[in-house]
């Protein structure tokens, strides 16, 4: 339009005519349309309604970490649980990724944090195997102490859609936070990591993450109340780190 005007021509309502043409041109509309944003669904009920800590939680495995056993190095993993309501985390160490090892980690978690109503996780093969064993345990409650224990806890697994790891962002983000804390600690002990030391580091990393404020609105106000942290909700203390 500026080129036409600089050439000495004046067309009445030129801007309106050009805008009208662009609106009707399919190619122009495709080139000029804004980028679509991802439409987010409402948060699930278990993330918005009050419930005891770790009643509803997500779970995932991260690692591996190399630990030294005598002259050999072994792979170890972290099993993370994150509470949907309090946003607290709990981490257990796994010796391997077998279903039996995973169930042992789950038993430790339930023994320390209390009964769990629902656990959501990705479609890991070890998780699927554990779900099958838990289903068998619930249908045959007389098959042993482990079956009776799991049936009594009434713990349900909800698996995400296959190949949809983005649906587990609520626990993937917590894994990233724990790993950031853990990497700084592991950098101080290169080549000297043992199972006992790794388990201690995992617990300490979880304690530090649970000391983070859940909101930052009043951090810079000296007259405001103490920021709420997951530790307030699960231990009634400011910090355990």
Automatic annotation (TrEMBL):
Gene3D superfamilies: Ribonuclease H-like superfamily/Ribonuclease H (3.30.420.10). Residues 48-238 form the Integrase catalytic domain. GO terms for molecular function: nucleic acid binding. One of its GO terms (biological process) is DNA integration. PROSITE patterns: INTEGRASE. Signal peptide: none annotated. InterPro entries: Integrase_cat-core (IPR001584), RNaseH-like_sf (IPR012337), RNaseH_sf (IPR036397). It comes from Nothobranchius furzeri (Turquoise killifish). Coiled coil: none annotated. This is Integrase catalytic domain-containing protein. The lineage of its organism: Eukaryota, Metazoa, Chordata, Craniata, Vertebrata.
């Amino acid at each position: 339009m500026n080129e036409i005007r600089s050439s000495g021509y004046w067309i009445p309502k030129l801007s309106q005519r050009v805008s009208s043409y662009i609106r009707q041109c399919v190619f122009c509309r495709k080139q000029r349309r804004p980028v679509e944003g991802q439409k987010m669904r409402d948060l699930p009920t278990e993330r918005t309604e009050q419930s005891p800590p770790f009643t509803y939680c997500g779970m995932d495995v991260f690692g591996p970490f190399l630990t030294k056993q005598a002259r050999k190095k072994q792979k170890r993993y972290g099993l993370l649980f994150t509470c949907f309501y309090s946003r607290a985390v709990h981490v257990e160490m796994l010796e391997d990724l077998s279903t039996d090892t995973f169930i042992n980690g789950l038993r430790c978690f339930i023994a320390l944090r209390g009964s769990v109503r629902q656990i959501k996780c990705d479609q890991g093969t070890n998780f699927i195997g554990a779900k099958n064993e838990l289903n068998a345990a619930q249908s045959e409650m007389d098959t042993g102490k482990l079956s009776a224990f799991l049936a009594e806890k009434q713990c349900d697994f909800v698996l995400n859609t296959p190949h949809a790891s983005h649906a587990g962002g609520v626990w993937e983000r917590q894994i990233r936070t724990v790993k950031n804390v853990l990497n700084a600690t592991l950098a101080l002990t290169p080549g000297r990591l043992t199972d006992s030391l790794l388990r201690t580091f995992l617990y300490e990393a979880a304690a530090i993450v649970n000391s983070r404020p859940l909101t930052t609105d009043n951090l810079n106000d000296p007259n405001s109340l103490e920021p709420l942290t997951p530790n307030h909700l699960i231990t009634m203390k400011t910090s355990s780190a």
